[in-house]
Amino acid sequence: MAGRHSVVLAITPLDALTGATFLLPQAYHTSILLADKEVWFNGMGVAVSQGCRSHANLGARTQYLQMGTTDVSGDAAPLLEGEL
Fold first, then answer.
1. pTM for the full predicted model
2. CA angle 69, 48, 73 (to 5 degrees)
3. What CA–CA distance (Å, rounded) separates 13 from 28?
4. Per residue in 71-82, pLDDT tens?
């Protein structure tokens, strides 16, 4: 359908960074991929990048879940940056 953009949830376990064991709950880094833009939370609020950069150096395999589609393009993602 024209004008529809994919929405994907990216999930990376943080056990390689935190040393999680069976005694501790697993932590994850997640972000939303909106077409070609990635949106995630950091210490400054909402961050936006091209592609899936925030998962690059986490030391674990990222899983991707297709969440559906939206009329909102990745070009709108920078409008969210630092807002929340």
1. 0.76
2. 30
3. 4
4. 877 776 666 655
Give the C-alpha separation, 31 to 80, whole Å.
Answer: 13
Would the CA dihedral through 38, 41, 42, 45 be positive or negative? positive
* pLDDT recorded at residue 8: 95
CA distance 82 to 61: 27
CB-CB contact of 35 with 22 (8 Å) = no
What does the domain layout of the chain look like in residue ranges?
5-69
H or E element that contains 29: strand 28-34
Helix extents (H) in the chain: 15-18
Residue 36 CB contacts under 8 Å (≥ 6 apart), including other chains: 50, 51, 74
